Structures are given as structure tokens and as C-alpha cells.
Amino acid sequence: MSEAFDISRIGGPDGLRALQEVARRAGDAALKHFQQGVVPEKKPDRSPVTIADREAEHIIRDHIVSAFPDAGFLGEETGVVKGSSGLHFIVDPIDGTRAFVRGWSTWSVLLGVEADGVPVVGIAYMPAADDFFVGVQGKGATHNGKPVRVSKIGPLADATVTHGGLQQFTMAGVGEALLRLSDACDIARGCPDFDGYRQILLGRSDAMVDPGVQPYDICAPAVLIREAGGRLTSFRGEETIYGGGAIASNGIIHEELVAALTGLS
User: Fold this and answer.
1) How many domains does the chain have?
2) How would residue 265 be classed by pLDDT, with cut points 50, 70 and 90?
């Protein structure tokens, strides 16, 4: 684990619990829409958005603005607010809106916190799957209150790797990387959105390849994966959530994975 984050910066244990509670409130509000069914709209980039996305983000944003008035905020639906405290809250109110509108249980609420540019808190709530993950830098990661650790599978030839949608690869201009991945690992399976990272955290897979993502997609997963003993980097192996794509792994196979995806193996 890395050096522990000073949680007094977010109000100590009570502040951390409050963040978990607001993620639950947002997720539970979205779950009601999920159970009733929603009709999505299309954003300018052709991605879907629903009333549930907007409601969930407003629930979280209202809490952040009230509890941390000097903090920055980035939300998929409401954009950026600059802050002065060094804290930056990064939110995807429904990660997996396409899954949400089609009735899949794999969507989630993602709430991440950066401190001075470093992801330090990650919360992922999957209401329809009844899964709740929390990670804090230097303090480990939990699933429904129990510690999680990544697998110890290696080399890459023996590994199970999940990946995002095929269009993510082609739209990001890395379509050939998927072919190289399929040749390099034991099995590559499509597993969308946070669900791919969940499989690593639960030891069911050994890596997740996620091209064409935004910081709000991977801030919370970055903390969770790292605190469970793994790695999350850009496609080139950089320790950042701003690289336009993400590779998460158990750490053992990470360098092999980066080499395979970049064609350097």
C-alpha cells in the first residue's frame, strides 16, 4: 500500500461515512428509475443520459458543495467547478448508462476524490447488484465491508482479461491492440464499465483494458485497484487517470500487458 491519505482532510471517519452515504442515496434514487424503466436522451457525443443520471449527480454535488465549499468538482453531467483546497471530487453518477437503460445490473455510482492531483478515495456502489466498494489510499479496499485483494495469476499467457466495448477500441484508434491482447492472454472477455474492475477486485479476472475513458470513469477504480494490491495506469504505463485510456491489473502481468497493447512485446 502507498502512504496513507489523511482523512481529516475530508472530515475524518465521519466525513468518509458521509461520502459513502451520499453515494448510497444517489444509487438508491437511480435504482428506483432503473426498476421503473427510463427513456434515454442522446448527448451531443451520442452517448445516452437519463433523468436518473442527472438526479444522482445532483444528490452528490449538493453534498460536496455544502460540505466542501472550497473543493473542486468534476461530474459527467454537470461539468467542472474549480476549487482552492487541493481536494477534487470526481463523479460518474451512473457509470454504464447503456447497461442501465437495457436492464443490466452492472451499472454503478462512482465517487472519487483526488488530493493534490492524486486519487485517494474511491467509492463504487452497484445498487442493482448489491455491491459496495470503498478504498482509501494506504488503508486498503473493501467489498461490502470485507477486504479485497487482487489475484496472483501470471504470466499474461495464463490470465483472464476483461475489456470495454469494441467501439471503444476502434474509436480510440487502438483496434489492433484488441487483437494483440487476444493473442497474448489466456482469454479476453467483454465486461463493460466498472464491472470489469469489479471482476479484478473479486479475483475473477486479472486485468481490465478500458480505452477511451474519462477521469470520472476511472478515478474511483484507480484507488480501489491500487489499494487491493494492483495497478492502474494509462495505456503507456503512466500512473495517471488523465491518459485517455486505462489498464488495470493485478500488477504481476502489468508490464506484459502494456507491452502487448502498445505492440512493444
Assistant:
1) 2
2) very low
The residue from 125, 147, 169 where one domain ends is: 147
Across the range 103-112, mean pLDDT stands at: 96
For the segment 215-226, the average pLDDT, to the nearest whole number, is: 97
DSSP 7: G
E strand spans, the chain: 41-42, 48-49, 72-75, 79-81, 87-95, 108-115, 118-126, 131-136, 140-143, 146-147, 160-163, 187-190, 207-211, 231-233, 245-249
Per-residue pLDDT tens digits for 161-214: 999 888 888 877 787 888 888 899 999 999 889 999 999 999 999 999 998 899
pLDDT-derived band at 264, boundaries 50, 70, 90: low
> Is residue 1 in a domain?
no
- pLDDT value of position 172: 77
Contacts of 256 (CB under 8 A, 6+ apart): 155, 156, 184, 265
Burial (CB count within 10 angstroms: exposed 0-12, middle 13-18, buried 19+), residue 106 = buried
Domain of 31, in residue numbers:
7-147
In a domain, 2, yes or no: no
